[in-house]
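Quick illustration, no need to memorize.
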Amino acid sequence: MLDNPGSDRIKGVSRLNQKDARTESGLFLLDGPQGLKELSRRPELAREIFATEVAADRYFEELDALERAGVEITLVSERVMAKLSQTTTPQGVVAVVNQLDLSIGEAMAGNPRLVVVLDQARDPGNAGTILRAADAAGADLVIFLQDSVDPYNPKLVRSTAGSILHVPFVKDVAPGEAISALKLAGLQVFATTAAGESITTLRAALAAPTAWIFGNEAHGISAEVQELSDRSVALPIYGQAESLNLATAASVCLYASAFEQHSQD
């Protein structure tokens, strides 16, 4: 069992909580049992897994399957886990995983019908929740435009509850490049803005392949991105709230499209 949080090995793994180390290594940390369960279906992505004794007993089935698939499992003390996880209440298991983002060309080759585009989205909790909602709604792709949060940010990864392993995504794409590729692939591009036309008028249009753009939590979508989009769309507010949380609004828009796209299934 590893018991020294100051050892070179543990310090090296802990550095993956920082963006520069993730970029340099091509690895990221998948923290918690839900991610572990999803990883057990894709063991080829895992480099190694660290677990406390309590977690090893609790998640024996998943860890055993991963070990039989050739993934190294290392037992660590609670204080080492605290160094690796860097959360208030570590859940006892952290995996080192290969990064899995695609190029924009690879992503478009999959002929996506429902796409999320994040424009300068900076809050990792919101972005991770949107990726999870995209997974639930059956979206085919999430695009992180330049100046958006790193999709491998530990808080973002935790917020996806394992969905980061399900939904293809692209990162650090220039707005013009992304939107041109989407239009060339036959998708209509909708920008969500407070001043747009109500989504309630677009039911027929939502059945078509669609890319939804969601902007910065405080400032919305940039002028450049809005100019490149086909349509500005708003969610009506029927009550007294000033606005909706970004992730909540994204979930509503994605499901509106999903309902129409799957209505003939």
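The mean pLDDT is 95.
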